[in-house]
Amino acid sequence: MNKVITFGEIMLRLSTPGYQRFLQSTNLNATFGGGEANVAVSLANYGIPTEFITRLPENDIAAWCISDLRKYNVGTQSIIRGGDRVGIYFLETGAVARASKVIYDRADSSIAGIQPGMINWREIFKDAQWFHWTGITPALSQGAADACLEAIQIANEMGVTVSCDLNYRKNLWKYGQTAAGIMPALVEGCDIILGNEEDAEKVFGIQPEGFDVSQTGGEVRASEFESVCQQLQTRFPRAKKVIITLRGSINANHNTWGGCLFSDGRLYSSQRYDITHIVDRVGGGDSFMGGLIYGLITYPADDQKALDFAVAASALKHTIYGDYNLVTVAEVEQLMKGDGSGRVSR
Fold it and tell me: pTM value?
């Protein structure tokens, strides 16, 4: 089976224990995470060969990071080295009415200094079937945006399927460009587009009629986003499928979760999961994307099953601490069949 290639930044994640606030905590838990690396870990857990591409410095923190990825069977041999630091993000996990908080310390990280020509994409894509990137990467620097565009164009030339997660992060666009100015040229080369209920509006000004994404009240209906999918496909005609994740936020620990997929003029909707005791929602969208890529590769003629796998996989991620979704295909399929009892497996 040919590889899935993902490209982006992986960071050291420093999080307060439990639900402690930064001001309370006397120690921080250290793990790693980042959108595209999270997708690679999910796929590796499902038995899909993966390769994560990034730029890391020559130091012990980077070596630790690479070792962590290898532990989960993610390919790291094409990671390039250079620059001075691994980016960091700090996480304070919210509870009930108090939202989670993320503080980035990733300025001048190694990947922010990447430039086109540094990565041999033609060599990497020789044994690849899929390339995935997110809107986080082009937000880091002009060089990262240009390198991402270079990868997309070469993947298009070589017949590699390209997917993107729009993943808008307003706090990252600080180098003089905007998502609206940079993203269209990149998304034009994508076969699969994923976004959440806000991304299309924040990046492209596309929104569902009569729906306020900031006031979900715990309920987000798939039918309200069919027009968003249609508008995205009209603007980016290469895209064969447009997928929207649907999160209804009741509070920080209690969300509803589902998704919809638009393909060939038809809207597919998933069941909705009521996630009442969230352990860690960071990486939830990435776990959805990992599940979706697996589903579209494994069930190429069944968009409904691919969508259902993605939603179930991501629902399970909300029960796992850390960025990575450490579940198996069998566990996802069990939940898809309706077994969410959580009974002890003996």
Answer: 0.94
